[in-house]
Structure formats: C-alpha cells, structure tokens
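Re: How this chain folds, sequence and tokenised backbone to follow
How to read it: Take the token row as a discrete description of the fold.
Start of record: The labelled sequence and token lines come straight after this line.
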Amino acid sequence: MVSLLQVIYYAIDVYVWLLIGMAVLSWLIAFDVLNRRNAIVSNIANFLYRITEPPLRPLRRIIPSFGGVDVTPVILILILFFVQRLIANNLYRFM
C-alpha cells in the first residue's frame, strides 16, 4: 500500500510540472516567442494539451475567466497539492 501511495504522490508531482510547462508554453506561443508552425513546438504543444486539458475542462465550466486570464491551472495545481498532502499524511500513518 505504501508503494502505491508513493507512486501516486510522484505521478501528481510530474503532472504539476506538466501543467506548469503547458502554461509557460501557451504564454510563449501567445507572445510570438515560439511559432506554432514549427513541428517540434507543435508536437510538444499537442502532447501537453492532450495531457492537461481533460482535467481542466470541467474546471473551466465552473470557474469563469477573469479578464481573459485563465486561472484554472492554478486552481488545479492547488487541488493536486491538497491531494498530495492527504497522501503524505496517509504515508506517515503506514510507516
């Protein structure tokens, strides 16, 4: 049970970094630092979009955008940190 909780804990950690990477990449594309027509940039953007969009979509339906600023990745990261804290507390109980 402990090893399963550790795997979930680290998977959440990796997913948070993917969310941060998607946010940074979207800013770079929006400010024309990176060109979406580049094959490498397009492949990375598509991968990150497919990985991060499914959990963000329900949050976007609930939470409105604030003046064109999308805060759903931040809220999802906070939720994931809360889940990690729950897992960490359970890990200490099993040890």
Q: What stands out?
A: The two ends are 10 Å apart (CA to CA). The chain has a mean pLDDT of 92.
